[in-house]
Description:
By secondary structure, the chain is an alpha+beta fold. It has four domains: 3-21 and 401-560, Multidrug efflux transporter AcrB transmembrane domain (Multidrug efflux transporter AcrB transmembrane fold), CATH 1.20.1640; 33-131, no CATH class; 136-221 and 391-395, Alpha-Beta Plaits, CATH 3.30.70.3400; 225-382, Gyrase A, domain 2 (2-Layer Sandwich), CATH 3.30.1360. Helices cover 56% and strands 16% of the residues. The chain has helices spanning 3-29, 33-39, 43-63, 75-87, 99-104, 109-131, 139-142, 153-160, 166-186, 212-219, 232-244, 321-333, 368-379, 401-450, 457-486, 491-523, 527-560, and strands spanning 136-137, 144-151, 193-197, 201-207, 225-230, 266-274, 280-289, 294-295, 299-306, 313-319, 338-343, 346-352, 360-364, 387-395, 454-455. The two termini are 32 Å apart.
Amino acid sequence: MTKRGRLFIVLLVVVVSGLFLFPTARWYFAVPQETKDLATGSKEQIKEYARGRATQELRDLKSMALDASVPSAYDYLIAISKESYKNRNMDVPKGTWTVEEVMKAYTSEQGLFNAIENYYRAELLDVKDEGNSILQLGLDLSGGMSVLLEANRASYEEKVGEAVDDAVISQKVREDMEILNNRIDQFGVTEPDIRLQGTDQILVEVPGAADPERINSFLMGKGSLTFHIVNQELSQRVEEYVAANPAEKFTETGAIKQHDFLDAGYMVAGFYENDAYGIDELQRLVVLDEEVGLDGIHIMEATTGTNPITGRPTVNFQLDDKGGELFYKLTSTHQNDTLAVVMDGKVKSMATINEPIRSSVQISGFSSEEAAALAIVLRTAALPIELSVINQQAVGASLGEDAVSSGLQAIAIGFILVIIFMTVYYRRAGMIADLALLLNLFFMLAILSAFNLTLTLTSIAGLILTVGMAVDANVIIFERIKEEYLLGKSAEASVKAGFKKAFWTIMDANITTFIAALVLSQLGSGSVAGFANTLAVGIVSSMFTALFVSHLIFDFAIEQMGVKKLHIDWRM
């Protein structure tokens, strides 16, 4: 390959790595801490904040004179108002905007309120999404969320129809732990700490920002996913009744009320849809057959897709043989009836049964994020016993601030000493190795960020070990080049022979280590898997920088800059 082609590849890798690393760099160095704190709160908290800001800023605008210039703090509103003018086919004002011109962009105060609320909602939800797609710091470095879950014994006993002892509950809780581990790994939340507390509780500690939504995502479907037939006639009757008697819609505890006039075998449930914040909002009440038409335990495989007609996200799944027979019988008996998908007691989707369905099922009514999360939940199976969140809080770094600071300081000092040694011992060639090391570190962090992995102290140990291996590769190459140079060969011939002879030595050593890292990443868990993943990424990156980047720099110096003598040893 020509030098131009190799240079293009290196520049391409640098640019792509920069794009991968940009969200992480922006999150940790550019996003204000106050914005992070707001974005990592629950969606309900974001909703309250956005509406609060909209209320306050609308009041401030109304208190200003109509001919007053719009303050700089409201520049965002000018850009939004321009779009409103265009959408209403009105002439966009020129020059300095006044409060009156902003007001005229909307047909009512409610429209202006919605515009302000939408701005803050979009800003915080975008930051929230960004915070879930960056290189996270582990529990030992920055802390995270601690959630205590407790088995719902009463619900399980009602499900099995008899009382159970502590041994059964403990066994089911252990099965829940295994499923939660699988779910957390598939959601991309690596390096969790999941421990059994007593006989019926699970303590889950997840690294990253204190974001309750991240916990809720893998607890989704903590109860069950079931299919029920909807009774449209009774549903209409209940809707008319609660419309005439609003106080009869909920119980004193806020739960949906089960009305006495319903016959045995029916239950009232709520049909929910996501609002703009992704929060479930009750749309109406529906009456369902209490008998479960199909239980989610019969689902074998689940994937996400898109409805070709509506364009809405879907969840597609395959049923096992028993489930296929049950579902075929259900859909055959109830053609033209409405089927409801009920998740954790909430009706999330309803559709009319047009024809019998046996094994391949498609459901919709979910956002893209919900569909992806639900597919993961279905793939990892339902929890054997329902879990309830009894405590949720942020936790600090498990190593302690002083230990983290000392560890990072030691790592930085070691890295600097390596750079100094290479420069002093190998002179200009050592500077090339140092540049390759810095690029190596840059590439590794970019890859870890791209895959949204979690960086713990053991992962950092993997980074440092990789740096040591990268230095070792450069030392092997330089010593080979030096041997050729001392034989009287030219600088160009020495570099060419040195890289050629060192190639397989470096490849053999790194491939064996890479195989060991892959085995550890597959068989290990927690910090062991984190160390192995970091090591595997580092091996690939170090070989690229040592054998490809360093070689390109040597060739450029010799052929383009006309270097005739090698400065590759402090004694030469």
